[in-house]
Amino acid sequence: IRIIFRDQVTLFSIRLHFVKNFASTILLQPLYRIAFVFCDLNQDKRPPCEVIEVWLESLTLHIAEGAAIPQVFLIDIYTYTGTYFLANVWRVEEKFISFFPALRCRKNKHYACLARLTMSGERFFMKGHHSHANEENEIARIAVENDCKRRAAEQPVRPRMISEQTRQEHPNAVIGFGSNLERAIQRARRRLQPVIPHSFDEAERTITGSDMYRKTLNQSADFFHGRVSTDTGNAFIFISLALLPEIRTTREIRSDGTFKTVPNLFYELFTLHVLAYGKSFPVAYVLMSNKTAELYRIAIDRILQILQEVNPGNHFEVEVLISDFKLAIMGTKQQAFPNARSRGCWFHYAQAIYRRACKELQRAYRSVGVIRSIVKKLIALTLLPSNRAYEGFQTIRHRTENALLAENPQSRAGVAR
């Protein structure tokens, strides 16, 4: 591209930022808004530009195919010497950029700006003058936002991290990380993602067909390790191969399940953790359509099968298996590790005691000290040796008996139940 300012020819390179990627035949695609660059930031006033002539000799784009046509995009033009020129944002009045018939300032309505760009042959001519200040801040903001969207399509990192990386490259842009920018980044990322599957077969094809879902974050190993099924359910298994061998050397294996943060096709996210280096690490994630003992069994069998492929052997040092109090999980893990001892999770036990107390004693628990003390002491019973748990329970009863007499009959009845 060559732009002439009063017979002074300057060579420029061009960079394109798109809200949406689209097919590489840009000269045949309808466009709606475009930003040109005419003002030097190093000067306080605009350079003279009554007549601007532009020759488009060649334009090479690297754009993903199959996406929708963009609504807005920005062209940044740099000189080879690094001088950055800015201008106002223009809108293409005709539908196809290949004709380039006329451009008008986007503030022609609010500011009655009469500036126009018209094309004759392969040259642009500027008519009129802008009635407002240059939009350096707005163009810089659009550049940051579009760069964030481009990064979102290329990097599987959090929106805030994308924003911080982009702002470091645009130090003069006045834009912060807010809800609008976060939504724009998420929308740009969703446009490149496949449609939400409506069946287990579609979900499996989506995962296996995309490295972003099938592999780990650094793309170094497979993360998805297949689907197992029973007559009534399906389970998708994801495993960290780097941590999987720890199952052979750990002395404690923990498991948990959550039901709120799962896709619509599934009922539960079951996770398996190992205790290593004094910390608990998740080794496997299993998306399950139901929580039957048979589905738990074949899911754990699949995990152990992958372990045998990665780290062959029959030796395990597992001594304790911790989970919630679902019999299906406890029984399945006991079958997989027969030499270990199953235990319920103290957190789930405490949660069950608290929920039971809140059924009839929620108000009393918050306002009456003795009720709250009884509930907390019942939770602490599990910290006693098993042969002294009943003794501790009787001690709680005797020491709180007199204090309960001062409470209302409803509270005493709730504690008794």
Can you describe what's shown?
The model is unreliable at 1-101 (pLDDT under 50). With 417 residues, this protein is α+β, with helices and mostly antiparallel strands. β12 and β13 (234-239) form a beta hairpin. The protein has twelve helices and 18 strands. It has four domains: 2-134, no CATH class; 141-191; 200-344, no CATH class; 347-416, no CATH class. α9 (346-367) runs antiparallel to α10 (369-380) and α10 packs antiparallel against α11 (389-405). The strands form four sheets. Strands 12-13-16-15-14-17-18 form a seven-stranded mixed β-sheet, with helices on both faces. The chain has a five-stranded antiparallel β-sheet with strand order 3-8-9-10-11, with no helix packed on it. Strands 5-1-2-6 form a four-stranded antiparallel β-sheet. It starts with a strand and ends with a helix. The relative contact order is 0.07. It comes from Daphnia magna. InterPro entries: MULE_transposase_dom. This is MULE transposase domain-containing protein.
